[in-house]
């Protein structure tokens, strides 16, 4: 059986479990006409990817509280994500950092072929795994940081240094017009290594984060090639960013949709 057919079966199993609730291996084997051994392997893979939970003799959907973080993505973030994906070429090797804005890229990747995607985020990895055209997925590994909900640390940095990438897509808690991107997180090493191993660094932020000065400098302007934000960007702020030799891309967001 091809990988594509295997992925389709697993997507169908996941949809069935989510709709039916707790489901036995026997029920799944009968419904999808595969052996119980194969179904158990499918459930093990889906659980490892964080898409469901196995129970003795079957599986249950993920609790709703574990899914809430993936639901509320603003129209501005979606528009920024679409603009980011437009910069991708077929067969690009990219890094997608953790965060809601970068995560919004993933549904837009389904039309791209031959992508290689490295991430330190389980949420991003799970979303990639659910795509019809699943790209080659690489994980950094490392030490789990509950604050950023991502892997960090020296192991992750060492893994990244074994590769080179076309682009890094990364968010920020704030944009200091004089210094660069800023963050509340004190773990800065991995972001800087990501920038080192990518030929283009693309920062994705909503306009209301620009001018927000947070003590921890993540990436200085010299490490950043492109900033994608929304149309609310103040013209003076745009000029200040462009003075650092950074390309600024703005996207239109429907104001009525933003107020929903």
TrEMBL record:
Pfam families attached to this UniProt entry:
DeoRC, HTH_DeoR
Q: Which UniProt keywords apply?
A: DNA-binding, Transcription, Transcription regulation
Q: What GO molecular functions are on record for this protein?
A: DNA binding; DNA-binding transcription factor activity
Domain HTH deoR-type, first and last residues per copy? 6-61
User: Entry's PANTHER family?
Assistant: AGA OPERON TRANSCRIPTIONAL REPRESSOR-RELATED, HTH-TYPE TRANSCRIPTIONAL REGULATOR SRLR-RELATED
What protein name is recorded for this chain? XRE family transcriptional regulator
Give the organism, scientific name. Answer: Halomonas salipaludis
Q: Provide the organism lineage as a comma list.
A: Bacteria, Pseudomonadati, Pseudomonadota, Gammaproteobacteria, Oceanospirillales
